[in-house]
Specification:
14 strands, 37% helix, four-stranded mixed beta sheet, globular
Length: 295
C-alpha cells in the first residue's frame, strides 16, 4: 500500500490500500497454491481482513505485523526512561495498531522485575501514549512512513516460520470468540511456526483491558465492510513479505517473495529475491535478526 504522509492517519489510507492489497493478494494466489501471507500495509487490521477475504486461505496463514513493531517501540522508550538494555525488557501489546493499541503494563518486566516497580504510573502512561503515536512521530520527522523497523519486525516473523521456531509474537490475527470478539482481526499473542499460526494465546485480561480490546475492535469494525470489495491496479511500494512453501526434491523448503517497489536495505536483500514475473522459485535462508529492531 501507499505510505503515510505528514498529517495523515492510518485510517486515511483505507480506500486506496484496500484496492492495492486485494489486487496484490490475487496475484499472489495465481502463483502460490498455499502461501503464508504477512500483511504490513496500513491500516493493518482492516488490510489483513481484506487479504484474508481475497485469498481464501485459512486463518492460520494470513496475519499482520504490527504488535512486534509497537512492542519494540514501547521497549525502546522504556529502556531510555529506565537506562537499561532493551534486551532485558519483555512486553506485550494487544489490540489495534496505533491509538487503539492495548498496553499491558502488568505483563511488562525488566529481567523478571515488574516494570511498575521501576517506574511511576504517570511516566509509564506517558510512554504508552508516545508508543501509540510513535508511527506519526516518525512520519513528521521523515516525511513518510517508517520502512526499516517494520521490515525488521516482519523479518523476525518470517524467521520464526522458516526455522519453525514457534516463537510467541503479538500479531494481527483472526479472532473467533477469543477475547470476546468474533470475525475480526486484532493484535493478540500467537505462536508462529512452519504452518503459520500454530496457536492463538488468550490471556486473562482484567475489566479495563477487556474494555480497551472492545474499543479496539469497534474501531476496526467502523471501517471494515465498506472497502474490502474494491479492486484496482496501482503501484505499491510499502513492504509486504510473503512466505511461500513450494515442494522441492529435498522436501519442503521456504522461498520468500519480495512484493514491493521500494529501496531495499541489506536486510531485505538478504531475505528476498527481486520482483520478476513469473515469480522465481528460489530457496533462501533467513539471516539472524536482532531481538530489538533499531529505529
Amino acid at each position: 500500500g501507499i505510505p503515510r504522509k505528514p498529517g495523515m492517519s492510518r485510517d486515511d489510507l483505507i480506500s486506496t490500500n484496500a484496492k492495492i492489497v486485494t489486487m496484490v493478494t490475487r496475484s499472489i494466489m495465481e502463483h502460490s497454491k498455499n502461501p503464508i501471507i504477512i500483511v504490513v500495509s496500513n491500516p493493518l487490521d482492516v488490510m489483513t481482513y481484506a487479504v484474508y477475504k481475497a485469498s481464501g486461505l485459512p486463518k492460520s496463514r494470513v496475519f499482520g505485523m504490527a504488535g512486534i513493531l509497537d512492542t519494540a517501540r514501547y521497549r525502546a522508550f522504556l529502556s531510555m526512561a529506565l537506562d537499561v538494555s532493551g534486551k532485558d525488557i519483555q512486553a506485550m501489546l494487544l489490540g489495534g495498531h496505533g491509538d487503539t493499541m492495548v498496553p499491558l503494563p502488568r505483563y511488562t518486566t525488566v529481567s523478571g522485575i515488574p516494570v511498575t516497580e521501576l517506574i511511576g504510573k504517570e511516566e509509564l502512561e506517558a510512554i504508552v501514549e508516545r508508543t501509540k503515536k510513535g508511527g506519526g512521530e516518525l512520519v513528521k520527522l521523515m516525511g513518510t512512513s517508517a520502512w526499516y523497523a517494520p521490515g525488521a519486525a516482519a523479518a523476525q516473523m518470517v524467521a520464526s516460520i522458516v526455522r519453525d521456531e514457534k516463537r510467541i509474537f503479538p500479531c494481527c490475527a483472526l479472532l473467533e470468540g477469543e477475547y470476546g470478539q468474533d470475525g475480526i482481526f486484532l493484535g493478540v499473542p500467537v505462536k508462529l511456526g512452519k504452518e503459520g499460526i500454530n496457536q492463538l494465546l488468550e490471556l486473562k485480561l482484567n475489566e479495563e483491558e477487556m474494555a480497551d480490546m472492545k474499543h479496539a475492535a469497534n474501531a476496526v469494525r467502523v471501517h471494515e465492510p465498506r472497502h474490502v470489495r474494491h479492486h484496482h491496479v496501482a503501484l505499491w511500494r510499502q513492504l509486504a513479505l510473503v512466505a511461500h512453501l513450494p515442494r522441492q526434491p529435498e522436501g519442503r523448503a521456504l522461498s520468500l517473495i519480495h512484493l514491493c517497489r521500494c529501496r531495499r536495505s541489506t536486510l531485505t536483500r538478504s531475505l528476498c529475491p527481486p520482483l520478476l514475473p513469473p515469480i522465481p522459485q528460489q530457496q533462501h535462508t533467513a539471516t539472524a535478526l536482532p531481538l530489538y529492531p533499531p529505529y
